[in-house]
From TrEMBL, chain A:
Native species: Lactobacillus gallinarum DSM 10532 = JCM 2011
Known catalytic reactions: tRNA(Phe) + L-phenylalanine + ATP = L-phenylalanyl-tRNA(Phe) + AMP + diphosphate + H(+)
The protein's Enzyme Commission number: 6.1.1.20
Family label: Belongs to the phenylalanyl-tRNA synthetase beta subunit family. Type 1 subfamily.
Lineage: Bacteria, Bacillati, Bacillota, Bacilli, Lactobacillales
Protein name: Phenylalanine--tRNA ligase beta subunit
From TrEMBL, chain B:
Catalytic class of the enzyme: ligase
Gene3D superfamilies: Bira Bifunctional Protein, Domain 2
Protein name as it appears in the record: Phenylalanine--tRNA ligase alpha subunit
Cofactor note: Binds 2 magnesium ions per tetramer.
Keywords from the UniProt entry: Aminoacyl-tRNA synthetase, ATP-binding, Cytoplasm, Ligase, Magnesium, Metal-binding, Nucleotide-binding, Protein biosynthesis
Chief location: cytoplasm
Gene Ontology molecular function: any one: ATP binding
Enzymatic reactions: tRNA(Phe) + L-phenylalanine + ATP = L-phenylalanyl-tRNA(Phe) + AMP + diphosphate + H(+)
GO biological process: phenylalanyl-tRNA aminoacylation
Assembly, per entry: Tetramer of two alpha and two beta subunits.
Length: 804, 349
């Protein structure tokens, strides 16, 4: 709502700087997003009277002489089509500043001296959307009632000396969507009672209330008032009204339409004016639209009406989308003589939905959806009739048709002074508190600590004591509240144990050099189940913004691969990314969320360097990183088993499922060629990564530990070089070594793997280093030799492996 | 030639040889020749019987003097040679210290999590628990319990990702409030919590909108929690995040789950309140919403709102990061461009 400071003066005596007032309103009631002073930045714009005007042959130009209140008239060349002798116009003198900080100087146009410029409204800063239609493509011409003289500044006559406060209201403060409502609010803030006037309307036409058969569904329109005016003379509104309209962001159209808009601005009650011919068959109905009905709105948009749209009909066809916009078929035109005025309350939700459905939010619909004062219906219709009587020579027919007239009782809220102080943390006396309610225009019954507050209907946002706390708090001033800390019994802050563990893991992988990514949870149904061992039922949203964001991910890897694609497309191919977040499924009839951790690598293990001390990231590098993570969180590596398994989206022969204590905890491997080949940016790249399920791993972890001293006795190392059948895995060999090594084997490391021409076909060579240690005594060679013999025998028996 | 002449000659010759040796090997050979067991000096001693007895003592003395001299000289020369070798070795080992080092990958925290971690540790220090709730939330917890009536605009299909008529992707972390309120035992302790997490809204992604973003919810409920406490708490957060010299203001606002509701602005850190494009020439930047917990929210969770009350606040972590780091496109948080992410390595905490 654009609130005119000058118009507010009708209700209040304001003497503060408008900017200071705006700041005060912001801190007390409604945020003032902006304060505009239309004349700001303009200079030397005066009223001129065109004395004579001649067309310049061969051009669209006119040569004029304009009286600007000086001794001599100015010669001005003007290109506007609507310039004519006798007009009062806006003249930018030599040295003037117009919109956009443009400077006007005297000069020559086609050899003719021009000592200024005759301006259109847009040229002095008006928005196209508020300029009256007849002046959109030309200069502005003051109307006869403007009361302006050549030479005087134009600002006051055009309302540009005003300050416009942009009330950025929250949905609960629809009461300020009118000048009267704003005046109550500002009045409460500056401690003045606004002068809000009643209407005294003289009806001089005949009683018309029996002439129209009006049928209204009370649920759709709990209040529905109509008035009839005859003999209306359609013409432009008086300048004072046009000024107020355009300063409020509304284009003046004609006196009838303008009055409906003006009344809406004044009272907050949306009004509508129909050409009375619309209802010449004597019927008017308010109902829900039927399926298939169409209506062309005033903005010439044809809409297919929805069975939840409220419409006003002539008994047959819709002529208005209730609360939103009128139909073209009931429009006020230059030929209109009789007018039916409507002042009504419509169901807020239906109006909001209709406006949203047809993408047609209007000043009226936005007021209806937030709530209109139920006590203003009659005043609004009478005020409109009065203005039309004055400005359009209309005859007001006797009587209002009140087709529905539901009453709403003002709310009385009971509470105590001490409750309000308790919540605010203040010590406001009962007297001061009652004074605050008085400023707001709320009547209070007071009995000791108890108060009963009568809330006028314009403030429908107030119903419970907490609402009164807000009123007292804000008028008292949030600036005046103390800044304290809650004085409460001690509480122990912190993370849950699970969260602690997740944070620990994030810190470790960050330390390993991974950059944290955050991806979207919504992805395509296909990507949602890629990289997922046993996909569950998907979580899909009903109305996705697009199909690539329609299902909740069941894995994090897909986001990291998307990130890789984005980075590769920008030539960033050295990637070490991780994400810790949730995955989602719909398994077993419930929606489940699991915490995962995933990492993705591409490029080299070290940044390219001149020593060439780097190698391409591969499966084993990534596995080593994951092993380090497991070690760092205290997982017994003996229990971690990697099994070659196929997982959708992963390389079929370079991927392992990871098990700990036989539970599947995640996977590791290379992203499938099928994925990278299908992505232009990733084509030919090798991406390796892992993803683990923290919901499974975290319960396996233990908190706390007992330290053991460093060994006091030396360890003995032995190497073992084996010739192994190619299809035997390292895991199988290690299992046999471990089961035969006895209790002193403390470490077993692969130190070499060779496959190639120097050994038998179908074989490979693996070399291990074994470390033996007795923590309690010095180990003898004999003990170790015994162990090695057993290992050799075991390998030969179980796996047919020869020691080289 | 008598022995004295021989000694004299050896004296000169020996020193000369020692002087000529430039490596340890040669020098050792010289040492053997001069002072070794079969060396020249030994030879002279051996030939003592040819010396007249009265001269033997003198010869013996001279030989010893000469041996000491040679040894001293040999040691000195050896030290020189060793030093020269070392100097040469060091020269050979010289490296260009200005060549670049071998850099590994350097990890980084996501900017939103930098902000989140900082806030969490701040609140933990003040005795708040960090609570996590589900992102797939029910209409009941997300809206109903939070006092959003059935026809509230936020509950439109247009604004919220519904999964079915009852389940949806949460549009706010406020649902965590309801869940915690239901469970908390107020006879044991006051409730102080923050609840961070992802939220979703049915907005098309552009520079200022994201269908997914992160919020943090805060809630303090007990018997004597006041709006002045809320004011004090919010001021501390704002100053902690945006700087101790920021001015703050509270503005009345509206949220269905709080009454009274306020929004907090901080004085623009770009122009210090003078007005600039960042604060849209108002001098103020909106940073969070808050209020006193609406009695309906408490009653919905089975808490007597005439006895208990408190405050709640909600802030956008993306927005905080945008403001704090001068980011102009929210999508930068979710495309994971490493050139963007790597800047935040320095923001580790």
């Amino acid at each position: 709502m654009l609130v005119s400071y000058n118009w507010l003066q009708d209700f209040l005596n304001l003497d503060q700087d408008p900017h200071d007032l705006a700041e005060k309103i912001t801190r007390t009631g409604v945020e003032i997003a902006d304060v505009k002073h239309p004349e700001e930045g303009l200079k030397k714009l005066v009223v001129g009277k065109v004395l004579d005007c001649k067309g310049v042959e061969g051009t669209h130009l006119h040569l004029t002489h304009v009286d600007v209140g000086e001794d001599e008239p100015l010669q001005i060349v003007c290109g506007a089509p609507n310039v004519a002798a006798g007009e009062l116009v806006i003249v930018a003198l030599h040295g003037a500043r117009i919109a956009g900080n443009e400077k006007i100087k005297k000069g020559k146009i086609r050899g003719m001296e021009s000592y200024g410029m005759i301006c259109g409204l847009q040229e002095i800063g008006f928005s196209d959307s508020v300029v009256p239609e007849e002046f959109v493509d030309g200069i502005y011409v003051f109307p006869e009632d403007a009361d302006v003289k050549p030479g005087q500044d134009v600002y006051e006559a055009l309302g540009m000396d005003d300050y416009i406060l942009d009330f950025d209201i929250t949905p609960n403060r629809a009461d300020t969507l009118s000048m009267e409502g704003s005046a109550y609010e500002v009045g409460a803030i500056v401690d003045q009672k606004p002068k809000v006037e009643d209407v005294f309307l003289k009806e001089d036409g005949p009683d018309w209330t029996d002439s129209l058969d009006v049928k209204v569904d009370e649920k759709l329109a709990p209040k529905f008032y109509l008035r009839k005016l005859t003999g209306v003379k359609i013409q432009p509104s008086p300048l004072w009204m046009q000024r107020r309209l355009w300063n409020a962001g509304i284009r003046p159209i004609n006196n009838v339409v303008d009055v409906t808009n003006y009344i809406m601005l004044l009272t907050g009650q949306p009004m509508h004016a129909y050409d009375a011919k619309t209802f010449s068959n004597g019927k008017l109905e308010v109902r829900l639209a039927n399926k298939g009905e169409k209506l062309t709105l005033l903005n010439e948009k044809e809409v297919d009406l929805d069975p939840n749209d409220i419409v006003i009909t002539d008994g047959e066809k819709p002529v208005m989308m209730a609360g939103v916009m009128g139909g073209l078929n009931s429009e006020i035109t230059a030929e209109t003589t009789d007018v039916i005025l409507e002042s009504a309350i419509f169901d807020p939700t239906l109006v909001r939905k209709a406006a949203l459905r047809h993408a047609n939010r209007t000043e009226a619909s936005s007021r209806y959806e937030k709530g209109v004062n139920w006590d203003g219906t009659e005043k609004a219709i009478n005020m409109a009739a009065l203005l039309l009587r004055n400005d359009a020579d209309a005859t007001v027919d006797e009587g209002i048709i009140k087709a529905t007239d539901t009453k709403r009782k003002p709310v009385v809220v009971k509470t105590t002074v001490s409750y309000i102080n308790h919540v605010l943390g203040t010590e406001i006396s009962a007297k001061d508190m009652i004074k605050i309610f008085d400023r707001l225009g709320f009547m209070v019954e007071h009995d000791g600590d108890n108060i009963a507050v009568h809330v006028p209907n314009r403030r429908w946002d107030i119903a419970i004591p907490a609402d009164l706390v807000e009123e007292v708090g804000r008028i008292y001033g949030y600036d005046n509240l103390k800044s304290t800390q809650p004085l409460l019994a001690e509480t122990h802050g912190g993370y849950s144990e699970k969260e602690e563990m997740m944070r620990r893991m994030k810190a470790i992988v960050e330390g390993q050099g991974l950059m944290e990514a955050i991806s979207y949870s919504l992805t395509s149904p296909e990507k949602a189940v890629r990289y997922t061992k046993d996909p569950k039922d998907l979580v899909k949203v009903q109305m996705p913004l697009n199909s690539s964001r329609s299902a909740m991910r069941e894995n994090l890897m897909t986001g990291l691969v998307d990130a890789a694609s984005y980075n590769f497309a920008r030539k960033q191919t050295q990637l070490a990314l991780f994400e810790q977040g949730r995955v989602y499924d719909h398994d077993g009839g419930t929606f489940n969320e699991h915490e995962h951790l995933a990492a993705l690598y591409s490029g080299n293990t070290f940044a390219e360097n001149w020593q060439h001390l780097t190698q391409k990231v591969d499966f084993y590098f990534v596995k080593g990183q994951l092993t380090n993570l497991f070690t760092a969180i205290g997982i017994d590596l003996e229990k971690v088993v990697y099994k070659a398994e196929g997982i959708k989206g992963m390389h079929p022969t370079r991927t392992a499922a990871i098990y700990i204590d036989k539970q599947y905890v995640g996977m590791i491997g290379m992203i499938a060629h099928a994925v990278t080949l299908a992505d232009k940016a990733l084509r030919g790249s090798e991406l390796y990564g892992y993803e683990i399920n923290l919901d499974v791993i975290i319960p396996m972890l233990t908190k706390g530990m007992t330290a053991t001293p460093a060994p006091k006795f030396p360890a003995i190392e032995r190497d073992l070089s084996l010739l192994v059948n190619k299809d035997v895995t390292n895991q199988e060999v290690e299992n046999v070594i471990k089961s035969n090594a006895g209790k002193y084997l403390t470490a077993l490391k692969v130190i070499d793997v060779y496959e190639g021409s120097h050994i038998e076909v179908g074989k490979k060579s693996i070399a291990y280093s074994l470390t033996f240690l007795n923590r309690k005594d010095t180990l003898t060679d004999k003990v170790v030799n015994n162990a090695m013999d057993k290992i050799r025998a075991g390998l030969e028996n179980d796996l047919d492996i020869k020691v080289r | 030639m008598d022995l004295f002449d021989k000694l004299k000659e050896l004296h000169e010759q020996g020193l000369e040889e020692i002087k000529k040796a430039t490596d340890e090997q040669t020098l050792n050979k010289v040492r053997v020749e001069l002072v070794g067991r079969k060396g020249e000096l030994t030879k002279i001693l051996h030939s003592m019987r040819d010396v007249a007895p009265e001269n033997r003592r003198e010869v013996g003395q001279k030989v010893n003097e000469l041996r000491d001299l040679f040894n001293k000289q040999l040691d000195a020369t050896k030290a020189e040679i060793v030093k020269a070798v070392l100097v040469k070795k060091l020269e050979d080992e010289k490296i260009d210290v200005t060549l670049p080092g071998c850099e590994g990958h350097l990890g980084s925290k996501h900017p939103i999590n930098v902000i989140l971690d900082d806030l969490e540790s701040y609140f933990i220090g003040m005795g708040y628990k960090v609570v996590q709730g589900p992102e797939i939330e029910t209409d009941h917890y997300c809206f109903e319990m939070m006092n959003l009536p059935k026809d509230h605009p936020a509950r439109d299909m247009q604004a919220t990702f519904y999964i079915d008529s009852e389940d949806l992707l949460r549009t706010q972390t406020s649902g965590d409030q309801a869940r915690v309120l239901e469970k908390h035992d107020f006879s044991k302790s006051p409730l102080k919590m923050v609840g961070p997490g992802k939220v979703y809204r049915r907005d098309d992604d552009d520079a200022t909108h994201s269908h997914q973003f992160m919020q943090m919810e805060g809630l303090v409920v007990d018997k004597n929690v006041t709006m002045s406490d809320l004011k004090g708490t919010l001021e501390m957060i704002a100053k902690h995040v945006f700087g101790q010299d920021r001015a703050t203001r509270l503005r009345p606002s509206y949220f269905p789950f709080t009454e009274p509701s306020v929004e907090m602005d901080v004085s623009c850190f770009n122009c210090d309140g003078k007005g600039c494009p960042i604060c849209k020439y108002t001098g103020w930047i909106e940073v969070l919403g808050a209020g006193m917990v609406h009695p309906n929210v408490l009653e919905n969770a089975g808490i007597d709102s005439t006895v208990y009350g408190g405050f709640a606040f909600g802030l956008g972590l993306d927005r905080f990061a945008i403001l704090k780091y001068g980011i102009d496109d929210i999508r930068d948080f979710y495309t994971n461009d490493v050139r963007f992410l790597k800047q935040f390595r320095k923001e580790e905490n």
